[in-house]
Amino acid sequence: MPYARLKLIFPIGLFVALFLDGSLSNVFAGNLFSYPYSSVLHLVLLWLIFAVFLDDRDDLSVGLWALFVGLVYDWYYTGVFGVFMISLPLVVYICRQIKPWLDLNFLTLLMVYIINLTIVEAFTFIWYTMGHVINDNLADFAVYTLGPTIAVNLAIFVILYYPMRRLYLSVN
């Protein structure tokens, strides 16, 4: 019976993370987006990675949810379709492939999060560059976007790791 709660809590948490991504970005826009730096919050990505690694049964449809929330994210926040609709399910797929090889602990999950954060940000940079949405070079992207984004999301990960882990493990 507790697992049924996870199937209910997961999508609710996913949409709360989606809402908080935009809301917190708006509230803290002066701090997150001060020229030339920009830090992008990735609470949805964090929630998806926790779902993959803390779902013992691997029974949640995390990939389908990632596709759906990626579509909503693209539609509502970016206006450029395909960026998160492709990158979020890709991250879920990568996490599912490496999960059996990893020992689940704080540092491992932190490194997985940083790597997947880099993948999503790099994918976004490439997609936007190919679509002529931006015209930055790779060095500017790394210094002014990727670095600050990793720093902010690292702090959020450290703050939310134990509460989210406890939540997942209590309903799993």
Could you walk me through the main structural features you see in this protein, from its secondary elements to its overall organization?
With 172 residues, the protein is mostly helical. The chain has one domain (2-171). The chain is 78% helix and 0% strand. The chain contains 7 helices and no strands. α4 packs antiparallel against α5. The model has no long low-confidence stretch (mean pLDDT 92). It is found in: Cell membrane.
- Estimated share of beta-strand residues: under 5%
Q: How many structurally independent domains?
A: 1
Question: How many beta-strand segments?
Answer: 0
Can you write the helix and strand succession as a string?
A: HHHHHHH
The amount of helix comes to over 70%
Class by alpha and beta content? mainly alpha
What is the CA-based Rg, rounded?
16 Å
Shape verdict: globular
Specify the biggest β-sheet.
Answer: none
